[in-house]
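Q: Here's a chain of 468 amino acids. Please give me its 3D structure as tokens.
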Amino acid sequence: MLLAQYSGTIPVRFVVVKKNSFFTMPETVPETDKANLELYSPHPGVRGMTLLNRAAFKRTVVVPVLKVKKEIVNTLLKSLKHTVLQRPGLKRVVEDTEDEDSRLVILDPHKIPEFSLGEAEQEVLKQLNVCPEVSKYNLELTYENFKSEEILRAVLPEGQEVTSGFSRVGHIAHLNLRDHQLPYRYLIGQVLIDKNPGITCVVNKTNIIDSTYRNFQMEVLAGESNLVTKVKENNIAYELDFSKVYWNPRLSTEHGRIVELLKPGDVLFDVFAGIGPFAIPAAKKKCRVFANDLNPESYSWLLHNCKLNKVDNKIKAFNMDGRDFLLGPVREELSRELPLLKEQKPSFHIVMNLPALAIEFLDVFRHLLVGEPCSTAGLPTVHCYGFSKHDDPAKDIQERAEASLGTSLAGRCSTYLVRNVAPNKEMLCISFQIPADVLYKRPCPDEAEPASKRLCTSKDFSEEKLPS
């Protein structure tokens, strides 16, 4: 089902997990695991399956066992812990159908070559008065006994990548499948639900992120169609509709890094705030926060999460274009506050987390204010995000920022690698104090008005009030 075509009302049901996660599945098999793959592989007949048939995965393998009196089973398991079968989901001890006083202890077939015990193991058995004869046992494996990567490796065409990683957002697993995996997407979705407790919905992104609202079309591959979920990041809870707003669990560390730079009393302007992962923890840190997002859905969930986290009286929220937000509320606040800075001054931070476009917005800071700066130390610090495919991404980001600002940032900025987005594509953050000669337009000498009156905004703006 494509969500873009979904016309029904998605039921509001919240499922919480303690943290957001990113999971990967092995694409290559270590040498040490190849023997395991031969033993613990589903029935070869499942190759090419596109609709999940769990019964088809059943197979029987021959494994070595020791016949042991039931009263000494636990002792034997401890003594031969490196030789006994260690396979999650499989019993190490089974009933002996021929002798109710005995049990069969399953041994790891890769530790018992040719079903023959080594001298060390034989010595242990001698001390326990256990017959060292190794028997063969037909062990039945079913779908439940196989790991997700084993199932997918058996199903997909041989030699092809099993699957890319997936993000977990509450009860939702989010995939970015490759073209060769698409014929198997419904099976992949169901396997992920079966093998990952707590996941009840699997979606696959069907197009690139829309740069306007930062959301994307997705297809529900398996499970429920409820995409309203609850997540927890850096000990703060957020609720969201994953089909309508942007949320990326891979940015948790970056959100925390920026908030760590803030001190109580500082002022944060969040230009592309989303549902509040910068704004809300900053408000909890007793910063004054101005948070904006163009997407009406993000704005609505931002207000919701402000109330959820009891910071709705500490955040002024706006639903505006980012450029208008900078030219309106941000300029108005800076014009009012910067001339009043005292010895115990707050710091002003402007976060611009829209990596596809944010650098293009930096030209807004050219002569945003009129007058003379009271103190260069009080100039706002910008944290602007961008993507780069350049061989030297830090240099690339800096040069593009300099082009937008119309000035050099040499020696006046720092770049931080946030994450690798794709092969040869990096996400970076460039941080810098806006140079005074960029931020301020000096008044003409023949202007008669006092400087304080020249520090004003060019137009009024409409501020969205938070519901009481």
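Q: Can you summarize the key feature?
A: The mean pLDDT is 85.
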